Amino acid sequence: MILTASPDLQADIVHASPSVDASKSSVKASFDQVSKRFGMGPESVLALEPISLDIAENAFVCLVGPSGCGKSTLLNILAGFETATSGQALMDGVPVRGPDARRGVVFQQGALFTWMSVQDNVAFGPLATGKSPKEAAGIAAHYLEMVGLTSFARRYPYELSGGMQQRVGIARALANDPQILLMDEPFAALDAQTRELLQEEIKHIWQDSRKTVLWITHSIEEALFLATDIVVMTARPGRIKARLTPQFALSRDPAVVTSTEFVRMKADIFGMLREEALTAQRQEVMR
Amino acid sequence: MNTANSKSRRSSLINVGSFVTLLLMWWLVTAPFGDKPLVAPLFLPSPGSVWDTFLMLIKNGYQGKSLWFHLGISLFRFGLAFTITVLVAVPLGLWMGMNETVKAVLDPPIEISRPMPKLALLPLLIIWFGIGEVAKVVIIVLALFPILSISAMQAVRGVGQRKVQAAMALGASRTMIFRRVIFPASLPGIFTSIRVSIGIGVTMLVGAEMIATSAGIAFMAMSASDFLLTNVVIVGALIMASLGYSLDLCARALENRIVHWGGKEG
Predict the structure, then answer these.
(1) What architecture is the B45-258 domain classified under in CATH?
(2) Is A19 inside a domain boundary?
(3) Element (H, E) at B128
């Protein structure tokens, strides 16, 4: 059982694949020879070597790589929080100049507005983008329902568990109906069970909305389970080491993680990442 | 929950016990066992006689002015100075936190004046403003200003970068980010410094009222000391203590109401 993919899964993939064919979809966002150097002079550190990467519309792209390889820097550059040392990030062919509401961001933790109720957190984006308070409240209610937090609308973030807080963060980012979601290790601080359930939820949300996603994670399984494209990065200075296109994101079967193909790809990526993690560790010791 | 409750009940029982013990010791050293008490009433009158003096002061006032007048004028000086400082220093501190240039301009005068004991300026202020209310209010403002402005600035600088980034990525304008993110996120820090400055403000008030005044609770205690009216001195000190304590209670109640999220992360 563990070594063979279920027939259901196969059917699922065949059924869903035409709509996600990368060659047919247009490029939503891209990195054009983006590099990043922190600091000046001899003390400076090259975080990213020039990287070029296209993110197709409707794709779910996962960046995996050892700590300090510049994954978050790359995401921050596309979000508009940081500027590239050379090259540029583009969205719909237009260079990114700063953060805006078309790119929703979800952080690992600590980004919710603690002084606002859950409802107000989610309504913040619609209000900021010019919706009336009434409209914003309606939108917030809709997305809170999507993440199953309707009954917590009047609570404050600190009254919620870590998993619920991340749901609020996701609902808040979705409430602006952004064209791309940038997610920086959104589940890294959660326990394993919560994490698995949220992964399934995110998968369903993505399957239903087909929103373009750039997702950063340390977890190979998470990447395989969710991504249509996995980009493996090297130790610092970050480069693209490999690009894979798993098909498991299209499956609705949680047991897909036990299929032969899944396990094989996991081993492949594990091998690549281990090599890079060791390099990263050596770099740390040398410093 | 239950254990926490019983624990806090135990603590408050001990609190009350400790307070009662102190009062009992005061009473014991001043009670006339044998022919005279351990400590002469001139140095430490008994709790009972202090209480009687308190009631008498309420009835007859002190030096032709009612106790309420003395208390009122003290509260007025403190309240005016405190309000002015909060209204000026906090917005200025917020501005310093938001704007590097403003910070560069205002940092030196504030930082240089911060370690200076402000009471040392009182003689100069009396030359400038006379012995009226202005000098007293100014000295309190001077003492509280650096505390409140610097902590408001630090509160702004301490606002989580991610919260600000999240707001930017949600499309918020600069004004909206300040009003709905940076300002509320700074409030817990500002409230902490408000509570600190209440204590310091009351201390400054007492200092200012002891020099060249004819009204106020600390003046009452100071002038009573000239006539060795120990009872009145103690009543004055206790009134000042409870003034500071009740102001802190008010600030704390306000803090719990307004910044209910303080110290909690989400």
Answers:
(1) Orthogonal Bundle (1.10)
(2) yes
(3) helix B122-129
